[in-house]
Design goal:
The chain has 74 residues and is mainly α. The chain has one helix at 5-70.
């Protein structure tokens, strides 16, 4: 005789529960990966801001030197 319908339902529910648990694990792994990416992006942003500040400082110094160079000698 075929399996009892109640047993089939329970079997399917257990299978669904297992698949959902696997999906939750995969989602958590993706969240962890995104957190790592965000951390790296934050670090890169900090470095880029630092470099932009240095470039700006050099531009100011070059402009000041060029201004001194164009002043007439006394």
């Amino acid at each position: 005789m075929a399996e009892d319908p109640e047993n089939l339902t329970l079997q399917l529910l257990r299978q669904i529960r297992d698949e959902q648990q696997a999906m939750r694990s995969e989602q958590q792994a993706m969240r962890d990966d995104l957190e790592t990416i965000n951390t790296k992006l934050d670090g890169n942003t900090l470095i880029l801001n630092f470099v932009a500040g240095l470039v700006s400082d050099h531009e100011d110094r070059i402009t000041a030197l060029e201004a001194k160079d164009t002043e007439p000698a006394e």
